[in-house]
Amino acid sequence: MTVGFIGGKFLPLHLGHVYAIIYASAMVDELYIVLSHSKQRDKELCDDTKMNYVPDYIRLRWLSKLTKDMPHVKVIPIEDDYGNDDYDWREGSQLIKKKIGKPIDYVFSSEPSYKDIFAELYPDSKHILIDPNRKHVNISASKIRAEGIFHNWNFIPDIIKPYFVKRVVVVGTESCGKSTLVRNLAKIYNTAYVAEYGRTVYEELGCDGIITEEDYQQIAYGHKMEEIKAIESANKLLFIDTEAIVTQFYSNLYNNEHQTVLDEIAKLQDYDLWIFLEPDVKWVHDGLRKHGTEVERLKNNNHLKTLLDKQNIQYKILKGNYEKRLKGAMELIEDIMKN
Ligand SMILES: NC(=O)c1ccc[n+]([C@@H]2O[C@H](COP(=O)([O-])OP(=O)(O)OC[C@H]3O[C@@H](n4cnc5c(N)ncnc54)[C@H](O)[C@@H]3O)[C@@H](O)[C@H]2O)c1
């Protein structure tokens, strides 16, 4: 039985790593992927780059997801608290040997520069170089950190893309152009969107005045599940029509109920961009909407803003005609895509 390991920081995991892991896995009976991590070192590596630090448990999940159908591959995290300049390779090797707990036949990497250190630390193991010239997948994690994830999107495995997708939520009161803007943005950026789940529920119920307190809770949960599903197929961005605070707004408006559960869901939300649409476009009566007078529209608009302010949401306001809103939204999106 042959045993090998490949170590790395996988910050972030890219298709070059995937190639090396799969190749190594084909050479041994048991492969260990060692996730070597230190919060200090990994944060230092991301400082002044275009990528935010990714916690170890997320990287562990990526590796685990990648290899879940490979029973002879195991992922092991090894933590230390050294920085970039004082990493102790010897101590690291002792921890790796202890965790693997059996003789190691092969140590894999794509780095010719590791030759001497591996010969010293693993004298009984063979150092196997996998694609040292990066001929198969010409990318490195440091290049991705320097240039940004979106710049190197084609080198990011599909299984980890959802982690990096930016979520843009569009909020506003009745007939303010949310759904149209969300659909249009998804078309322009060639990605997925989440429609207002509450609307689907109203349409299924098919008649007026029968929405109950519990329905709003289910709308909020249902909407979140739609987001979780849609992010899997999103391309860099996911556009979302409404969220839990807007659901609270409707619960206030139609049922005169303020629901703590919706506040709690709202607290867990963590969107990258909030776009608030002012209701200054013409009222479109669609059979479900009810508050079309100017006075009602203004009153409701202020109420929704109060709810958002209570949750300390930093929203960007867009107003004016449809062209102005589209341009404004695109400028805001380009801004969040820079990082
Ligand atoms: N103490 C030890 O014995 C020991 C041994 C191995 C690794 N480590 C730890 O892991 C770290 C290794 O870091 P890294 O920056 O080399 O890892 P990394 O996360 O960038 O890469 C992980 C592995 O994939 C290989 N790889 C990267 N890009 C590739 C590509 N395009 N094609 C094919 N293979 C590719 C690398 O050579 C490395 O072997 C070290 O800094 C150390 O912390 C420690």
Q: What is the radius of gyration computed over CA atoms, rounded to a whole number of angstroms?
A: 25 Å
Q: With helices defined by DSSP (H or I, 4 residues minimum), what is the helix count?
A: 14
Report the average pLDDT across residues. Answer: 94
The CATH topology of the largest domain is Rossmann fold
- Low-confidence stretches are none
Distinct small molecules bound, one entry per kind? nicotinamide-adenine-dinucleotide
Helix content: 40-55%
What is the strand arrangement across the widest sheet? 3-2-1-4-5
Strand content: 5-15%
What does this structure look like?
By secondary structure, this protein is α/β, with parallel strands linked by helices. The chain has helices at 15-25, 39-46, 56-67, 89-100, 115-121, 141-147, 161-164, 178-188, 197-205, 213-231, 244-255, 260-268, 294-310, 322-337, and strands at 3-8, 30-37, 73-79, 106-109, 126-129, 166-171, 193-194, 237-241, 273-277, 316-318. A 5-stranded parallel sheet has the order 3-2-1-4-5, with helices on both faces. The protein has a 5-stranded parallel sheet with strand order 7-8-6-9-10, with helices on both faces. It is elongated and about 80 Å long.
